[in-house]
Design brief:
two-stranded antiparallel sheet, mainly alpha, about 160 residues
Length: about 160
Amino acid sequence: MTGTRSTTRRTATVDPRLALRARELLGRAEAMAAHATDAPEPTEQLRALYLAALRAAGAALVIGEKSTVRPRRGSVSAWARLPRALPELTTWATYFAGLSRLRADIELGVVRDIEPARVQATQARLADFLAEVQAQVVAFEHGTRVPAGHRSATLAELSAG
């Protein structure tokens, strides 16, 4: 799903505190993803996968948003903020935002049954999202941005299979 170009752009000086915080959140997301299938019910597995994606979004926002600038208007959800901070992650934000209502319904107890295939598909997409965020964090640590030629997943690809 990804490709790279050999050139990179230098960005501002790297703040090691931001890099460390992003790494912490990404590590937490990876641990949550690894343990999501330990939950006994597919609904709880999907909920855990969603929360892992949310932690990964947090890692991306740590390095992508200017810490002193907070939006005055609009949604404060991670999925709404992510495209503004890192436009290359817009497709992922759209995909996981689409699961927000389902996750809320699971927490309310309104949704009791989810097909295991949906959990597996979400798990695969989460693995790809984690890899994309990892690439963003590594680039940030090196004082660069992910190259313009880097190809993130398209919504059509995420919707297929």
